[in-house]
């Protein structure tokens, strides 16, 4: 293994990438295969990282193109990620080609293309000339959409230059932002406090009707109506009035958006004394694996939900094959030998496939041969025969079965043809007796196709209802972007506490109760997929939960020694403090005050300042649980204190630890992963990463009472926030992850002066009123 590690180092991979690669057999196998193929033993970092990126993005269908891509990278023809992505996309859509046309591939990968600043300037100018409504909508235009459209015109232009040019030309057209522009921008994004109040009010109003199925209104389609015979079939086979399902595709890790869906589906059924399936929609063996299946089951257990049954769509592959045969026999499906690219062009041009009128008998024979493995991957597929000119693209003869010679994680090598999601999903809903098929709004366009299959097969038809997808501020939930963050080592894996995967939330310290409370609070609506929920709403839920659950203790992030000069060397005073102040039944614990204690360097200054309430020469300070002290002297490494009588009232109290009770630990301070409210609006969302999203305090100290703590134990370090013991804590090493601070970021108030007295800015008007009343009384 050391030899392999050295080899990866020689191609310029960083240590985190190497560590993650050594853990994954497939990732390691792929990069080593690439290096062996082109004979690379050592190269510069740029080439090495491109070879690695290429290796991790190759599917089995593209494995025969590995040498082509690797050679282009080594020879410098592909020299950046944009070119690599262009080349990969071309190969994905041309898998049917035995030989890749060099000219076409070079064009797709941008080989030799250099986009000059002049080209960017001219393209942006021409683009804005066609935006006739820009002067009307002014600065409320969709920046993300504009840059996306420009990217299609200049796919290999440097993103930074493109963004700068767009901003400059728009400002030249519209002039500087006016007060009205600024007001319009403010109305687009709600303030966090307003959003919190609105959500709480909405939660109270909707609480009674949230699970009222009579309020789930959707489009009226004739194909949705069940015959009396179908209704009787369901009644005879399923005793539950309401039956829902949570149907993840096991190709990744669940995130907070999935938690919203889980919460809604399970609680909707529970409200009507019904039950919920966990069904794995496992129709794509190339992206699915047992690890994801096991992790999804564990996520449901963590959230506190027990499925009525756990099923797999793949268990119905035999039935789905039979239903496909029925469609062929009715003349409602046909086998098509067009390539993906050819088919896509015909669908775009609203033209039929030349194979559309093949007779059912011939289609049945071809389909049987597909099942037997007679054809190559992508050589032929089975399509539904609906309407190639339909205004809804999903109804333009969609593919319903394709060939994949890839073992299935649940079915093994039993099948080499696999049904596609749209065909599978509706039929599985039907045969499982689902009453309410709930999904997010991007699937609304597919509802007509859902019911077309059920009508043609005369199957029971569930009620379909779509709701808004969850978007949370200061993060990304896109599977593609999360994958990029993980595999480019921008975050520390799928359970990094800064991302909102359920694994990451759990590792950060979020409880199941807080996540479910958040889902209840935001509720479900059909207001669109563009609305955002502020991260502060989620943080508020965990604060309220841990406030009554988390024991209080103290920790020091950056220790500095403090000596109490006016007590004896062997001084020791036992203090009794509440474990959880809001929960007196938890009792008290004891801590020691001794001559030598540790303070936090963040609370210490060698020179005083008017707005500083911490430790500085000559100041009166308070130490939590043990009263006031006078600061005698401060140096870079030591503080000297004098203990005062309890009649002295300090302005605030600091946390501390006795030298005799302090023991080492590591503290990770986590913050928002992105500084931008919506990172998706940035030209390059990676540039919006918060550089202080993770700060590691390697020399921290905790109280020795915590030596018996176990992973996922939660507590409050007073003044610092709520913390969770990380899974990496072992062999006597304790690592604490900060779950959340004690105050919302936007509610941390600065200090102001009113009549010579320090008050919080929020309280300035009230303070002036109080002072006026006092003056009036004196008179």
From TrEMBL:
Family: Belongs to the class-I aminoacyl-tRNA synthetase family.
Coiled coil regions, renumbered to chain: none
The UniProt record lists the keyword Thylakoid: no
GO BP terms in the entry: glutaminyl-tRNA aminoacylation
Region (Disordered): 183-207, 757-779
Chain ranges of the tRNA synthetases class I (E and Q) anti-codon binding domain: 654-726
Stretches assigned to the Glutaminyl-tRNA synthetase class Ib non-specific RNA-binding domain: 2-158, 164-205
Segments forming domain Glutamyl/glutaminyl-tRNA synthetase class Ib catalytic: 241-547
Protein name: Glutamine--tRNA ligase
Pfam families: tRNA-synt_1c (PF00749), tRNA-synt_1c_C (PF03950), tRNA-synt_1c_C2 (PF20974), tRNA_synt_1c_R1 (PF04558), tRNA_synt_1c_R2 (PF04557)
GO MF terms, alphabetically ordered: ATP binding; glutamine-tRNA ligase activity
Compositional bias annotation for Basic and acidic residues: 758-779
NCBIfam families according to UniProt: glnS
Chain ranges of the Glutamyl/glutaminyl-tRNA synthetase class Ib anti-codon binding domain: 550-637
GO cellular component: cytosol
UniProtKB keywords: Aminoacyl-tRNA synthetase, ATP-binding, Ligase, Nucleotide-binding, Protein biosynthesis
